[in-house]
Specification:
This protein is an alpha/beta fold. It is built from 7 helices and 7 strands; from the N terminus they run ααβαββαβαβαβαβ.
């Protein structure tokens, strides 16, 4: 979307990806490199204040406009774009609940439902967005806390291994799942399919 918008408005667009598991100081360093080229505007997507505030302050000192996108308010930016992470996650949770409700009436009737939350507790935006998803989904489906599984990749375990452990421990269960970013949902989904449990899962990713 950003690339298409830049083409439409006739401006140059540069994209730097710090890598979802890294973020933090890596993103700040990359932003500083980008600002060496004196862009008119620089923005940060889906980060906490410990990441976007140093970038915003540096941009202010360099007379570069800073935009906060899905990152919360900043004293250095007059505008905030996007909706709060928790609310965004809640929309996804309700969407998954709609699909799984139909499954529970048909193919999954009589089976125990679990929710797996693939997140990264080192990234504030992830904590908020997957929490919003979990809360909305659990409310819609009436799930107990014992049926909510936290799969935190901040500890160093791969999403595939976390998924395998959840499936092995619950051989008769069915699962709704999400991931803070697309690949964090797709990797465990593929792991589940490879384990022969594709019919026991439904996924909604958060982008």
């Amino acid at each position: 979307g950003m690339v298409a918008a830049s083409e439409f408005y006739g401006v140059k667009f540069s994209d730097l990806d710090a890598g979802a598991p890294q973020g933090g100081t890596v993103m700040i360093d990359l932003a500083e490199q980008l600002m060496l080229y004196a862009p008119d505007v620089i923005g940060v997507l889906g980060q906490g204040p410990e990441t976007f505030e140093p970038i915003a302050a540096s941009a202010f000192d360099k007379d570069i406009v800073f935009l906060s996108v899905d990152s919360g308010k900043s004293e250095y930016s007059p505008y905030v774009y996007g909706i709060p992470d928790r609310r965004s996650g809640g929309v996804g949770g309700k969407m998954l609940a709609e699909g799984i409700s139909e499954k529970m009436k048909n193919d999954w009737s009589g089976r125990e439902l679990f929710f797996i939350e693939f997140t990264h507790t080192g990234i504030p935006a992830c904590v908020n967005i997957t929490a919003g998803f979990r809360e909305a989904f659990a409310k819609e489906m009436g799930l107990d806390k014992s049926n909510l599984i936290m799969a935190d990749v901040a500890g160093g375990q791969s999403p595939q291994d976390l998924m395998a452990a959840a499936l092995t421990a619950r051989p008769k269960g069915v699962f709704g799942l999400t991931g803070c970013w697309d690949q964090l949902g797709i990797d465990p989904w593929n792991a589940g399919k490879e384990a022969g449990r594709g019919k026991d899962m439904m996924l909604v990713t958060l982008g």
